[in-house]
Design goal:
0% strand, WH-like_DNA-bd_sf, Transposase, coiled coil, Homeodomain-like_sf, mainly alpha
């Protein structure tokens, strides 16, 4: 063989999908899988693009300034507050629905919809 001769490998579709599946599980990193199966990282990147698995690409967000860090912390705090507010709203809606069920049953209606319909007709 000459210095510039390269071996061209062909991989089957199931093999490619197997590698992507293993990458998805997160058990191994891309570089570990490449070493394990003797595959070039660029080849795996081609497969990721081919099968439209952009979630498997190594994308990183680099935060450098204190302003960015404080902004991220503020946003995380806001997300937590919104989650709590949403949970409270859902609980309030469930309680209201329960009250309506009891009221409908006590007043002799077959369903909440029937009670709501009756209530909306009255002035």
């Amino acid at each position: 063989m000459y210095k510039n001769d390269k071996v061209i490998r062909r991989y089957s579709e199931p093999f490619k999908l197997k590698i992507l599946a293993e990458l998805t599980t997160g058990k191994h990193t891309k570089s570990e899988l490449c070493k394990l199966y003797s595959i070039a990282p660029t080849t795996v990147n081609v497969w990721i693009k081919k099968y439209n698995r952009k979630d498997l690409m190594n994308t990183r967000v680099k935060v450098e300034t204190k302003d960015e860090i404080s902004r991220i912390k503020a946003l995380q705090k806001e997300i937590e507050q919104l989650k709590k507010l949403l949970l409270k709203k859902d609980l309030d809606a469930m309680i209201e629905e329960s009250y309506l069920e009891v009221a409908a049953e006590d007043l002799g209606y077959k369903s909440i919809a029937e009670l709501k319909k009756k209530l909306s007709i009255k002035p």
